[in-house]
Amino acid sequence: MNELVEKRAEALAEYIIETKATVRAAAKRFDVSKSTVHTDVSLRLKEIDFGLYEQVRLVLDENKAERHIRGGNATREKYKKAKRKS
């Protein structure tokens, strides 16, 4: 595997663990696609550093479990802003 890809996968994982970032936030921060982040931390990282993979997996699983809450909050804010404008 390319050394640059390995370093990116490790950097993405460390960023996600430290900040509890979502895949979307990590993709934006590293200027790569969401699918690249997912591939790096879910497939490539497993081969590179299994311990780091397990840590990032915990954060991603937590984010996945909470996404419906974040989506609901975003929708509520959207309608609050629309109500203020009218």
- The coarse silhouette is elongated
Tally of contiguous helical segments: 4
Mean pLDDT: 91
Derived structural class: mainly alpha
Helix proportion = over 70%
Task: Extract low-pLDDT stretches.
Answer: none
Q: Element order, helices and strands?
A: HHHH
CA radius of gyration is: 16 Å
For the biggest sheet, the summary is: none
* Cα end-to-end separation: 56 Å
Tell me the fraction of residues in β-strands, as a range: under 5%
Number of strands: 0
SSE inventory with pairings:
Blueprint: H1 3-19, H2 23-30, H3 34-48, H4 50-85
Key structural traits:
single chain; 86 residues; 4 helices
Describe the structure.
- This protein is mainly alpha-helical and 86 residues long.
- It has four helices and no strands.
- The protein has helices at 3-19, 23-30, 34-48, 50-85.
- α2 crosses α3 (34-48) and α3 packs antiparallel against α4.
- The radius of gyration is 16 Å and the shape is elongated.
- The model has no long low-confidence stretch (mean pLDDT 91).
Summarize the structure in short:
The chain has 86 residues and is mainly α.
